[in-house]
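Example (one chain per record):
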Amino acid sequence: MATKSSIHIKPCNVASSEAHNRRTAEYMRNIGKSKVYVVSELSANNEQWINPDFGNPELQAHYEDIKRMVKEKTGRAMQEKERERKGKNGKIIKVAGCSPIREGVLLVRQDTTLADVHKFGEECQKRWGITPLQIFLHKDEGHWLNGQPDQEDRESFKVGERWFKPNYHAHIVFDWMNHDTGKSRKLNDDDMMQMQTLASDILLMERGKSKAVTGKEHLERNDFIIEKQKAELQRIEAIKRHKEQQVNLAEQELRQVKSEIRTDKLKSAATDAATVIASGVGSLFGSGKMKKLEQSNDELRQEIAKRDKGIDDLKAQMQRMQEQHGKQIRNLQGIHNQELEAKDKEISRLNTLLEKAFKWFPMLKEMLRMEKLCAAIGFTKEMIESLLTKKEAIRCNGRIYSEEHRRKFDIKNDIFKVEKNPTDDTKLVLTINMQPIGEWFKEQLGKLRHGRKEAIEEPKKNRGFKL
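Predicted structure:
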């Protein structure tokens, strides 16, 4: 399964546009690799792109142009260094300096091209206004393994006598400024999450596990798109549940306030009764105590009036929250439905292309089935290419895996070849020593079982007779 796509954004050191190799080493150390090596034999696979719209490719020169642009647009010099200011509460707040040029590091696949990364940069410019300035695609860096790779490791390969695990990645340098206003682009956490999703979509880094070799038609990319839509729907549901919790809390608060008001009204009624009784005997106690009771009663009525106003305000706030929540849900559902419709069209287009491909190239489906069978057996990409593309026979030693029997079998100087099925010209078959691989697996399993049976029966023959 391919590595998950990720992009890490950080301020770019514009001291030199050729310093990307040093930035690569720093990035690798940050993600836990102890040492990074560059294999010169693989450096020919590296690619780079410089935006032709900015004339001078030197980042320092472009950085100085941005400083002049900010001064012209805003009337103030660009704040390059971190500074401190005092907030409203008196606390000191640190304000980060402007980072007009930023660099993103993308994890990519072996077959990722410069055009793929450039497409990602163009889409970032359309959505958020950040302009790609430079792209460097590195396929010659990684680290050496101490021994042979694990069986599930499909990425490592031999360079000379040692095994090398590559780290395929790309550097993309962005201009983060709005040249119309002279201000920096503001991207929030949701924007950065969407950027991660965009990288996964364009570079196709997330895939489901490989299916069994059944010969059935399927599109892994379609499965990936459907899983993404399910995850987005779950996110919308989580937002909806959060809003409902907020409404429930507000309703609980309203019930509590109503309960307190009922208690206050009972107190008020009791005070009124006491006032009436006291008025009948006012001559006995004097007018001073009566005035105090009346003043206390007025204060209680004012407090109740305030509580009533608080309830009205709370109801209005709840109504606004419910309307805002409903609007957000409708917007999210609308966006979700639009994305689903677009993905459905894309899936339909891909299925149509696939049907045409199978029609124009009748053996394509068989070639795909052979590729999956060879991969399941344990062949490398180079071996599969020799068998299918070059149509060559290969001689192998080691062990091969049978999914049907769920075990490995030893091979020694055995010859493999992909040939047409002798009984059906529309089918292909993988042979070992000119014998179909399925029959060979069954034959080897029979030999193993026969060997175990002889090993068990041999001790019984040597027991002798008992009288």
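Caption: The CA atoms of residues 301 and 352 lie 76 Å apart.
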